[in-house]
Structure formats: C-alpha cells, structure tokens
From TrEMBL:
<dbReference type="InterPro" id="IPR036812">
    <property type="entry name" value="NAD(P)_OxRdtase_dom_sf"/>
</dbReference>
<dbReference type="InterPro" id="IPR023210">
    <property type="entry name" value="NADP_OxRdtase_dom"/>
</dbReference>
<dbReference type="InterPro" id="IPR053135">
    <property type="entry name" value="AKR2_Oxidoreductase"/>
</dbReference>
<feature type="domain" description="NADP-dependent oxidoreductase">
    <location>
        <begin position="47"/>
        <end position="309"/>
    </location>
</feature>
<dbReference type="Pfam" id="PF00248">
    <property type="entry name" value="Aldo_ket_red"/>
</dbReference>
<protein>
    <submittedName>
        <fullName>Oxidoreductase</fullName>
    </submittedName>
</protein>
Length: 327
C-alpha cells in the first residue's frame, strides 16, 4: 500500500487508514449500523469484534489507526489490540482526538452520545486520558470537529498548550465538520506558534456528495500539511445500503467496473492527489474487505464525469447528515 508522511519528517502512514468511530461504542450515525453486531454490543463483545476488524486492516497493510476520546472505549480497545499483537510505536501510526466527551453510558438510545468542549481544561483532562492509554503509540493528537463557532482557533492560551505538546514530539492536528469546513481549514493554515505552523495535519469530510472542501484541502497539502479524509462513504450513503449505492450514477459505475459501490466511492477519493490518508469506517470484516477493493480500482474519465452528478451543496449535505439517527 502506498505510504506518505505524517507531517514533515513524521512517521510513515498508509493511504488507507482505519477509523474507529463505528467500532469503539455501541451506537453511531451509519446506515444499518445496528445490523453489524450479531454477537451483541456489550463492551466485551464489541472489543472482540473491534479486534477482528483491526486484525484484518493490519494484515491488509493499513498502518494508520484513528480513534478519539469520544469513541466510547475506542482508545482502550486499540491499546489492548496493540499490546496483544506486540506492536510497538515504530510499527504503525496512531491518531486520536480531544474535544468531545462520550456521555452515552453504553446505551443505544441515549439522549446524547457525546458533548463538545474545546476548553483548555478539557484539553488537559483528555490529553492525560489519551496518553495514559496510547502514550508511546500516539503520533497525532487532533482537536475534534472544529467549526467557525468553536473557540479553539481563537484561544491563544489553548494554542500555546497545543504548541507545548507539539514540542514534546506529538504532532498536532484538527478535524473540521459542517458546511463551512473550508473556512476553518484555511484559518488553521495561518496558525503559527514558536515560528512554525502549529497544525501538522487537517482532517475533513470529502466524498462524492460533498466536495466543497477540496480546494482548501489542496492548499493544505501544498503547504506541507497531511490531509486526512474522513467519512468518504458519507456515513453509509455511498454504500449498497444507501440509495446512491442502489441506483443512479454510483450504482451504474459500480456495475460497469465490477466493484462495489463503496469501492468506487473510495477510489474517487484516493484519486485526489491531495488526499494523503483516506479513513475507512468499516464496522465489519466483510465491509473492510469490500472497501479495500478500491486500491485495485482506477476510474476512467467517463466514470469520473458520471459520478459528478452526485454532488450536493454543502448545506444540503450536512442537513441530511444531521438527520441520520444513532443506531
């Protein structure tokens, strides 16, 4: 699998990464998520399940793994898996995030599953928790889901705290979300501490439905930042479970190539030269194997043009995403 670098002089990372949002906690906003755990969703069952998916990803060559404090027990599941396989910091790269707290109490129908907090106190608390679990493996620590309304980029004291973490050798990044992602990415590129850019990586949503952040991500890549693409399958909308995967341009291209709708959608993201890492959000081994077929798929000009018909405006896309239930 093709490899790139995590920041200037950073560790090697693979073009495909494994995201743990769907396998670190019992509920998530992915179409059909409730069907993916026939063995049940107790913490013990989900840890076994997560380790199977992580094993499959590692055997396929994936060497970047992405989790967060708000992914339930995602960091703990990852730590147990790393130790169980005897993997050291030089064997892969791990990214985690702070800024959301998981408050779902392992309930499928919790009133709220996570709470956002971008304060200095939250950073200090969650960094201590993340380092206790992932210490030597932690390569990248990201501010989780920065939007224009977030205080994170305007809090000088917090930025200084992040710079001190960077100076200790942990690369600092941020993830963005919402219809104004591009605006936040461009603001982040301007943040400097100690005479050097603060953020080594930016993580944003880009997929066949919402491409609005593409130009900003291309600028980030050109400026030497590592670009990580999240939600390339639009929380299941660009898989056989979604309407787009069952009919229309995506299904047509998939039928013509002999690949699954998910692989076609992922191949379209991998074709973007600025996309350094594309995160897979597979919740099962079968989904992961189907996703990995994207590595063998090259889309021709006709397919790329046909897939252009899927584009939605960012406001419409994010409004639809907000309506997806946690299952």
């Amino acid at each position: 699998m093709e490899a790139r670098r995590l920041g200037a002089g950073g560790p090697s990372i693979t073009r495909l990464g494994m995201g743990m949002a769907a396998i670190g906690r019992p509920a998530y906003q992915t179409l059909g998520h409730g069907e993916d755990f026939p063995e049940g969703r107790s913490p013990e069952a989900m840890e076994r399940h997560a380790h199977q998916v992580l094993d499959e990803a590692f055997e396929a060559g994936v060497r970047y793994f992405d989790t967060a404090r708000s992914y339930g027990r995602g960091e703990a599941f990852l730590r147990a898996w790393l130790e169980g396989r005897g993997l050291g910091p030089g064997d892969l790269a791990v990214g985690s995030k702070w800024g959301y707290r998981y408050v779902g109490a392992w309930r499928l129908e919790a009133e709220r599953h996570e709470v956002k907090d971008h304060s200095r106190a939250a950073f200090a608390e969650q960094l201590e928790e993340s380092e206790a679990l992932l210490g030597p493996w932690l390569s990248l620590y990201q501010v989780h889901s920065v939007t224009p309304e977030s205080p994170a980029l305007g809090d000088g004291a917090l930025l200084d705290d992040l710079a001190r973490l960077r100076d200790r050798g942990v690369r600092v990044g941020l993830t963005v979300s919402g219809a104004r992602q591009a605006e936040v990415v461009l603001r982040a590129l301007e943040v400097v501490r100690g005479g050097a850019p603060l953020f080594a990586a930016v993580q944003a949503t880009w997929n066949l439905l919402d491409r609005s952040c593409g130009d900003a991500l291309a600028r980030a890549h050109a400026a030497g930042r590592t670009v990580i693409v999240k939600e390339p399958l639009a929380n299941g909308r660009l898989t056989p479970r979604g309407a787009a995967g069952q009919g229309g341009p995506l299904a047509e291209v998939a039928a013509r190539t002999g690949a699954g709708a998910d692989a076609v959608a992922l191949a379209a993201v991998l074709a973007q030269p600025w996309a350094d890492v594309v995160l897979l959000g597979a919740a099962t081994v079968g989904q992961l194997r189907s996703n990995l077929a994207a590595l063998r798929l090259s889309l021709d000009e006709a397919a790329t043009e046909r897939l252009g018909a899927l584009r939605e405006g960012p406001e419409a896309y994010w409004a639809e995403r907000s309506r997806q239930p946690w299952t």
